[in-house]
User: What shape does this take?
Amino acid sequence: MSRATNENLPPNVIKQLAKELKNLDETPPEGIKVGVNDDDFSIIYADIEGPAGTPYESGVFRMKLILSHDFPQSPPKGYFLTKIFHPNIATNGEICVNTLKKDWNPSLGLRHVLIVVRCLLIEPFPESALNEQAGKMLLENYEEYARHARLYTGIHALKPKPKFKTGAISESTTALNVDQSNTSVLNVDEKNAVSGAALPLPSTLAASTTTFTKGGSGPDQQASAVLNSMIETGVSGSAAAVPAPAATLKKEGGLVKVQVDKKKMDARKKSLKRL
Assistant: This one.
């Protein structure tokens, strides 16, 4: 900490300012960003965003507060470093607001002062104007005043820094999860393709597996039903061309696994064709 810049401020004031500046840096007021300089607490810098719906919208205005040697008994002096066309801000940047003059109270903190200054951009007070031209224009012809203020904003004001879109991270995370899910599905499909499992049955074959009678509970009868369906739809047809070496069949609410030897199936197929 530099003694040259802070020697006129009492230790208790420096301690209080350090706490307040830390708080302003971590949780700044809406539209206000404070520049913290640990080496000099007597000059506070802040960037103020022009409020929406005012001629100062889309601009950022830099200002500073200069603390006197007997602060907080005396109010700080405020100056805009960015040129601005405003009734209560002089051409040299000096700010005229009651909070920094007759309405000052030692208990008021820097946060309150900065919020009041930003509110001044929303509601000027032309009756106590430091810029007489802006004050007169505001009272007589608001549109002309607003045009001048927008012109100054476009020429002199800083440009707002781009902000991250709300929910961008969550959107990216969601997209990543979807990609991972698709990858998992593909991996399962690849494994099934290699092992020959989980192949979908054609509708005709799927239907035939549920039409067994109570008397036809033997494996031979179940296999015959499957083969009959295959013959009816055409053994060479695309629907019946899906092999079923190990089909899972449903009977009376239970699953019955039927494994048919390939040679037996071929023999039965030939005999059925002769019928």
